[in-house]
TrEMBL record:
Keyword Cell membrane assigned: yes
Top-level lineage group: Bacteria
Residues of the full protein shown: 451 to 743 of 808
Cleavable signal peptide: none
Location in the cell: Cell membrane
Membership in a protein family: Belongs to the cation transport ATPase (P-type) (TC 3.A.3) family. Type IB subfamily.
Protein name: Heavy metal translocating P-type ATPase
Record keyword rRNA-binding present: no
Protein keywords: ATP-binding, Cell membrane, Membrane, Metal-binding, Nucleotide-binding, Translocase, Transmembrane, Transmembrane helix
Amino acid sequence: ATPTAIMVGTSLGAKRGVLFKNAMALEASASIRTVVMDKTGTLTRGEPEVTDLVTAPGTDEVRLLQLVAAVERESEHPLADAVVRYAEAQSSGTTGGTQQFENVPGQGAVAVVDGRRIAVGNRRLAEQEGADLGELASAREELAATGRTVVIACIDGRAAGLIGIADAPRETSADAVAELHALGVEVVMLTGDNRATAERIAQRLGIDTVIAEVLPRDKAARIAELQRDGRKVAMVGDGVNDAPALAQADLGIAIGAGTDVAIETADLVLMRSDPLDVPTALRIGRGTLRKMR
Ligand code: ADP
Ligand code: MG
């Protein structure tokens, strides 16, 4: 009966674009107790857009955008794309040139532009630059409280401005969380973004546990912690950064619209990139296992 049940489960999944890579993936999906979901590109659309620009007193908006865009043009991060598009839409113009570009994984990017050191990224990066948010601190809190990702721009170690970026939740994310809860499964959000931003979005989606401000290299270790008492954990992700966590999980689930690395590493691929297909996959797994007993 075993091979037949597996064939039935696999083809049932395939009809919905839920691609189990092998029999073990199907079996693992039956015993999942915790589903960890990456925020950006999994729970959200992964189409970030700049909504706010706040400058420190004495900083010119157009000049700041020029400098920031000069750094972000060299970065491949989705947030960088959003910043560059915004700068171009404001026709902020270009600079003399970008030198010594450095990508800081999970934090941002740094470069020298027109002889000035420009750092663009999260609070951790700003702190490393020795920057004090000063008058920008309250604006940062307000933006994060609305679920915006807040990028800090530093010029020569001084916080010069904030960029608020919105990435809307996917339409079915909240329903997917509700269905997982109905299946008795705990849902956890895992993200490199800051805590206040992540918590606001989690609250909107009905997610109770948030693991935020995690560096890409630490994501797999956070999955291992959740597995400690033998709990079976699934991880859903889309990015290059997510691959080690997908490999660590008992069931790695890649969003079909994700990167090749994520898709290759995963045990299960959701072709429609629909979070609702996560509970669907777990139900198929449970149904298959029942038939095997
Ligand atoms: P996620 O977990 O959402 O995939 P990342 O680990 O890629 O996030 O990045 C974590 C945080 O680092 C982002 O929320 C952002 O604040 C900052 N960051 C990373 N790369 C950049 C960049 N190129 N420009 C601005 N901010 C960045
Ligand atoms: Mg990501």
